[in-house]
Amino acid sequence: MWTTDARESRSSSRRKYKKNLHFVNVATARYGRGAGTPNAQCGGGSVLIARGNSQLLLVDMQQRLVPAMANATELIAACGNLLRAAGALGIPVLASEQYRKGLGDTIADLMDLAPGMPRFEKLEFSCYANPALRDALIDAGRPQVILAGIEAHVCVLQTGLELLAGGFQVFVAADAVASRRPESRSLALARLERAGAVPISVEMALFEWLRTAADTDFRNVSRLIR
To answer: Which helix (H) or strand (E) holds 94?
Structure first.
């Protein structure tokens, strides 16, 4: 349940974001209806990820939570490749941490890849319900959010749904999200896609960020998925 202060903060944040020239309404961006500022690099109704319009949100990849996930080793590797590519290409990265005292910090394997990554502690399951995180996402001025992290059916799901409601384009890196039970992850991904999020792989994100083999970062970034 939103408190009065939280509702006012959320309303104020949305108004501020919609004044941003990069604001994209998800429905109009995907289907070309009505107003809104389309993705300039990709063209009108395209949902290609654009380097200059996107940001990466790493959700709750914490010390006491990650080991409980199905396929934890593969999850860490996928999130690591997203962080490496984002660092090389100048993509902003934010990280959330759920109840740090109980679940610990973001795991060292990922922290080492992005030492300057802003980390936000939260108690809310949705990152977008946390005022500081919501403001950081809005203030980045990048309407596309790539989601990675855990758990898919709780914090990733709720974050994705509220980002969509807030006017963002949401891309869920399916190979970089996990839950304790694989069926929980599958349900979350299906629900997010029905709501308007776009399922992607880490490799899709990397090559859409690059767009061309002529990019000066192509060799270094493409090595991450070989």
So the answer is: strand 93-98
Q: Say if CB 173 and CB 78 are below 8 A apart.
A: yes
Per-residue pLDDT of the chain (226 residues; tens, 9 = 90+): 444 454 454 455 455 444 443 344 443 343 332 223 333 333 334 589 999 999 999 999 999 999 999 999 999 999 999 999 999 999 999 999 999 999 999 999 999 999 999 999 999 999 999 999 999 999 999 999 999 999 999 999 999 999 999 999 999 999 999 999 999 999 999 999 999 999 999 999 999 999 998 998 898 898 898 7
> In the structure encoding, which two tokens stand for residue 211, read together?
């767009």
Owning domain of residue 181: 4-30+51-225
Copy the structure tokens of residue 31: 């289907």
d(CA 23, CA 2): 24
Interaxial angle between packed helices 202-210 and 72-89, expressed in degrees from 0 to 180 and rounded to the nearest 10: 10
Residue 187 included in any domain: yes
CATH code, domain with 68: 3.40.50.850
Domain count, the chain: 1
Would 44 be classed as within a structural domain?
A: no
